[in-house]
Amino acid sequence: MNNQPHIEIPTTRREFLAKSGGGFGAMALAALMGQSASAAPADPRAPKTTHFPAKAKNVIFLFMEGGPSHIDLFDPKPLLNELAGQKLPESFGKVILAMGENDAPLMRCPRKWKQHGESGLWVSDWFPEIATCADDLCVIRSCVSDGINHSSGVCQMNTGHVIGGRPSLGAWATYGLGTENQDMPAFVVLTDGKGQPVNGSRNWGSGFMPAAYQGVQFKSGADPILNLNPPSHITSKRQKSKLDFLSQLDREHAAEREDFSELEARIKSYELAFRMQSAAPDIVDLSSESEETKQLYGIDQKETNVFGNNCLLARRLVENGVRFVQLYSGAGSGWDAHSNIEGNHGKLCKEVDKPIAGLLKDLKRRGLWDETLVIWGGEFGRTPMSEKGNGRDHNPTGFTMWMAGGAVPGGRTIGATDELGLKAVENPLHVHDLHATIMRVLGVDHTKLIYRHKGRPERIDMNEGRAELKVLGLA
């Protein structure tokens, strides 16, 4: 008879560390990871206090994926038309372009420009509806990115880095502020149904943070939440019994693996999905909205129906406590006008102009203006030089974004590009600065919002950004 004691052999390196040395391996592992299970909050999505008093508590990010042309929309350059057909002046130095057409001639902007509102903000004729909201816009004309192509540009605008793996802006907002509605996701993503954005779900991922902070993608249309409703033969009681049993198994499994945040996030997601079956249908149902409201967003018109639906849904989501909503126009680099910019931008501007203006006006009349920050922009702008004769190349060295609502004073421009719109020359704001500024509008000090990862204190700006107080009217 074999009287030797049974020895359980660890099957993974993490399990070996957890069980070796009386648990000292787990302590070392926790130190390396920069966090411990005991430090984790009971509910990572619970509402949190801000560092500064702030009216803004929600974000709607209107992402024009592919790179909208700032010099054809919000940043007029009269000299560009004067020099059209000539080479870029030597005083600009060597310019490296994504598609390599470095010697391409300058291309004129055929847009008609007008000053709008009491502020006299310049907006081109491609955005006649948004122009009616000119006094509400804080236009930042000096944005800068490091991403020269779409993958790196979209990644940086969403996560702060040109290489994937870091938490998205929405994940940071959820981590720092939590959410006010525990029956809905804190971070929702809506696309226009034309495809998936470049890099896919990494754009709204949680990176090295717990999975509870990642975004949830909704689809456009009448049924935006995938797999929300159970099969007709599954009763609510039966479903809850199954979820309770699954939760019991998961928690028993998690009790021995306290450093696995993914498992806890999975448990929370099952619980959230069950609660959403009661709360979400009413929130995403647009049929209760008046015909006047639907017309305001352009839902009654073919060109604006899809983005109008998404903008109206975004308003209903923030109205019901969703912290961060991101809307993609041109998902899959639709704004990427290397050729035929007239046809490309003309079509896309028509699709988003009325819905965006409708969103801004609707937020105001429903008392959501000061508490909702609206952001517009893409991963970069476009060059003053032509490509293929009638298009423009990528331009990360100087482009435009704007913010509205969220107690941000409107009717202003911040920063400037050079005389041709190629480079930011006055008050350049890097993506890191934009992220820090967005968090500051929400009342969060980006230098104090820290997540420890592998012993390193990580911040949204990668320790390189500054909050631009001019956006808040504080400088």
UniProtKB/TrEMBL annotation:
Keyword 4Fe-4S annotated: no
Any one Pfam family match given in the protein's UniProt record, by short name: DUF1501
Sections of the chain in a coiled coil: 246-273
Coiled coil keyword on record: yes
InterPro entries (alphabetical): Alkaline_phosphatase_core_sf, DUF1501, TAT_signal
Keywords for the protein's UniProt record, in alphabetical order: Coiled coil
PROSITE patterns: TAT
PANTHER family (alphabetical): BLL7424 PROTEIN, DUF1501 DOMAIN-CONTAINING PROTEIN
Name of this protein: DUF1501 domain-containing protein
Organism, as annotated: Blastopirellula marina
